[in-house]
Amino acid sequence: MSVIQRSIRSRLLSTSARPTARLTAIPKHRYYANEPPPKASSEDAPAAKPGDSAMIRQEGAAEGHPRHQPDYNVAIDYRTSNFSPIPKRVMDGSEPGDSVAAAVLSGAPMDLQARTVRIYRPAKTATQSGDWHTHHWVMDWDPLPKGHRWENPLMGWQSSADFMQGYSLNFRSKEDAISFANKQGYEYFVQEPNERKFIPKAYANNFVHSPKKLKIIRTK
Amino acid sequence: MINPTYLAQRTRSSANWADAKRRVLHSYRDWLRAAPEIQQMYSLNLPISTIRTKIRQEFERHRYVSQLNTVDVLIFNSHQEFQETLNYWKQLTHVLKYFRTEEEPKARLPSNFINGFLEGRN
Description:
Oligomer: heterodimer
Largest interface: A-B, 36 and 35 residues
Strand order of the largest sheet of chain A: 5-2-1-6
Strand content of chain B: under 5%
Radius of gyration of chain B: 18 Å
Distance between the termini of chain B: 59 Å
Number of helices of chain B: 6
Structural class of chain B: mainly alpha
Largest sheet of chain A: 4 strands, mixed
Helix content of chain A: 10-25%
Distance between the termini of chain A: 72 Å
Number of strands of chain A: 6
Largest sheet of chain B: none
Shape of chain B: globular
Structural class of chain A: alpha+beta
């Protein structure tokens, strides 16, 4: 019965008091005898300094660390297996904001909130046919580290523990995709598309009078 | 004239947080009262206290929900599960979905990174 009591105790804690991963696993810097200790401080970080803008909140490494670490204390699901990734945070409806807490209501397995999702626009095919397949935004799941594919011992077919492999969702706009990912509690990153640069050209511009250089490159 | 099925509850929105709290507590008390019947109906090998603990766990999971609409949907889900369980519309597998930790103590997330690594999770 100790298993049940441990899980109740963790459930009765409020979100702010939830235990976070300890920092003891990080190795300390090894000082060699001749080398002076490193003198870098947080002022040297390349991120935005507090004086740049009032909207940017500077978060120290210690503040962000517990949020970005996997949370080993979440309650497991009926679908958790050895291949399930560890979530960073599981949505429980107490998040501020107006969006629907769909992760709580949908009954989807907790594994989905642990997996990262990529939001991107598909690249144009390298033909001259046109770009009609590149107007929407696609949400794609990152493959699992261990369980995405292995060879079945019986027939040599490809088995997988990943129920989201081969699934992708299409959206009209990037904001739609981001709000969906927020609603469902997915960790996401947005990959901006490579836009082609096009310079409008006119043949008559070759004969325009120019006082200085005659050869001007108009295609760059 | 359509007669509603046994244990059906009319879906409605809660007027305010006090109303929602009242509905949640009524639903919780119904579940607690039904625990011996669930154990007898599905021939579970668990004591009634385990079932009641699980009911408490499931309700506590959503204790800090901040939106009333979400609470309404969760209350509906509770009523739905209650009806399906007590009308014997579920099967043993469906009920045991909730008792994964009790049935299989080995199925759990590792306690830290090193244990997970030694188990073979990437």
